[in-house]
Amino acid sequence: MSDPKARKDIEALVEALDDAPLDEADAGDAVKRLGVDVKKWAGAIRQRVAAADESDRAARFTEARRAYADDAARYDAKKSEPKRSVEEQRATMRTLMARIPRESATAAVHFHKFEEATEEELAEMIKALRHLLNEDE
Amino acid sequence: MSSWNRPARREPILALGIQHARAVRKEVGYARPTELEIEVIAHLRGALVRATPTTGSRATLLRIGDRGVIGVAGGLSDGERRWAIAHELGHFETHTNVSYLGLCTGEDLRTTYGSDGREPEANAFAAELLLPEDLV
């Protein structure tokens, strides 16, 4: 819409329509006289909107992938728990779990098969727990 | 420690899992589940997925408040891995009234309706998340 006259005409038309909206018959008549292919026009608009949505979504997903990769790298960079017995690690777990704010609704905790967890599993759980408690020991 | 505020057993409400999966899809804004990796979806929701050594479980979930870590076992096929992560994300999304520090076993993931009602709900969540009804 680079033609200033055409732009002015359209602005005048939009303004006029604000005051006296077209009914369907008027609109149909105008479209017919102007030779506008409404179906094609609507399709093009829908395509343009879909392309904009797709572009926006792709950008959001790219950002989400980057954020995940960054967080994962930070987590992986944390040092592993020292090798300790199951009993010692359970004690560490208890200490860490005691730091979870009990006054919040999220203080309830439960385990499946916790009693059977191996040294390696416990070490990984402790690492994750420290991560969630923002502890970097 | 294992009995500390353990959630009470109850009958599963599968619609709860399905409803939460649909909410996640809507909020994350993908049309097809394959559009975005399950790890990234989980991260967008507050749960970081990492590989973890496990013996009796396929996946674990540690949750404190609105953040969590989902540990997933190695040696799983792509499909098993996606399912295991989606299942844990189901706990994360659906059972927010309890802070899970759970290890889900292969048995849990196969759905034992007689057990904690929350396991079938997490499975219903995973099914709807990975294979939305409207796309079937």
Topology:
The complex is a heterodimer of chains A (137) and B (136).
Chain A lengths: L3 H16 L4 H11 L3 H40 L8 H12 L21 H14 L5
Helix pairs in contact in A: 4-5
Chain B lengths: L13 H15 L9 H8 L1 E5 L5 E8 L2 E6 L5 H17 L6 E5 H4 L8 H13 L6
Parallel strand pairs in B: 1-3
Antiparallel strand pairs in B: 2-3, 2-4
Word description of this protein:
- The complex is a heterodimer of chains A (137) and B (136).
- By secondary structure, chain A is mostly helical.
- Chain A has 2 domains: 4-64, no CATH class; 82-132, no CATH class.
- Chain A is 68% helix and 0% strand.
- Chain A has helices at 4-19, 24-34, 38-77, 86-97, 119-132.
- Chain B is of the alpha+beta class and 136 residues long.
- In chain B, helix 1 (14-28) runs parallel beside helix 5, helix 2 runs parallel beside helix 3 and helix 3 (78-94) crosses helix 5.
- Chain B is globular, with a radius of gyration of 14 Å.
- Classes of the chains: A mainly alpha (137), B alpha+beta (136).
- Chain A binds chain B through residues 57, 60-61, 64-65, 67-68, 71-72, 75-76, 90, 93-94, 97, 100, 104-118, 120-121, 124-125, 128-129, 131-133, and chain B through 1-2, 4-7, 29-30, 35-37, 39-40, 43-44, 48-50, 52-57, 60, 62-65, 67-69, 71, 97-105, 108.
- The fraction of residues assigned to DSSP E strands of chain A is under 5%
- Written as H for each helix and E for each strand, in order along the chain, the element string of chain B is HHEEEHEHH
Number of domains of chain A: 2
| Structural class designation of chain A | mainly alpha
Compressed to H and E, one letter per element, the order of chain A equals HHHHH
Low-confidence stretches of chain B: 1-5, 108-114
Residue share in helices of chain A? Answer: 55-70%
* Percent helix of chain B: 40-55%
Distance between the termini of chain A: 63 Å
Low-confidence stretches of chain A: 107-111
